[in-house]
Amino acid sequence: MHPRWALGAPTYRLQRAQWVPGALNDVFAFFEDPRNLERITPSWLNFSIRSMSTPRIMQGTRITYRVAWMAVPMRWVTLIEAWEPARRFVDTALVSPYILWRHEHTFRPEESGVTIGDEVEYRLPFGPVGSLMHALVVRRQLEAIFDFRARAVAEIMPGSRVIPVASASR
């Protein structure tokens, strides 16, 4: 993306945490399987995985997705930039509507379960116009996506509970 589009673009952060019952390796195995991403993503995004550069996720894997934002289909490509099995992984968007998208997934063993954490850092293009879009639409949509995800995980892993943390912020 042209650097001029990034001028004045603030970095936003979205954080979520959820405790789920189960063994660390089993919980991590669920989240490392990209097919499960389709199960925990709202249907209105029309999300689908198009390709993966490796048979299994590992550091350096590139995953190409198709999503629809406001009914406009678009390509999204992520790179797994960090991969620490049963601890954390980080995906960074190489192609997306954002000028920065970095999503860290963490897994912390707790008594009889695991706390899964999500921290997303993101920036929108178009400076002040991007900031306005964030305030009017993007922040709410991202929160809705992660709210849906928490509900879907709770259905798949009964007994889960959301842990309150700060939401989208600068």
Side by side, the strands of the main sheet go 2-3-4-5-6-7-1-8
Main sheet record: 8 strands, antiparallel
Distance between the termini: 21 Å
In total, the number of strands is 8
Summarize the structure in words.
The protein is α+β, with helices and mostly antiparallel strands. It has a single domain (7-163), classed as 2-Layer Sandwich (Alpha-D-Glucose-1,6-Bisphosphate, Chain A, domain 4), CATH 3.30.530.20. The chain has three helices and eight strands, in the order E-H-H-E-E-E-E-E-E-H-E. The chain has an eight-stranded antiparallel sheet with strand order 2-3-4-5-6-7-1-8. It is globular.
Observed structural traits:
170 residues, 26% helix, Alpha-D-Glucose-1,6-Bisphosphate, Chain A, domain 4, 8 strands, 41% strand, alpha+beta, eight-stranded antiparallel β-sheet
What's the helix and strand layout?
Elements: E1 11-21, H1 24-32, H2 34-39, E2 48-52, E3 62-69, E4 72-84, E5 88-95, E6 100-110, E7 113-123, H3 127-156, E8 161-163
Antiparallel strand pairs: 1-7, 1-8, 2-3, 3-4, 4-5, 5-6, 6-7
Give a short overview:
This protein has 170 residues and is of the alpha+beta class. The chain has one domain (7-163): START domain (Alpha-D-Glucose-1,6-Bisphosphate, Chain A, domain 4, 2-Layer Sandwich). The chain is built from 3 helices and 8 strands; from the N terminus they run βααββββββαβ.
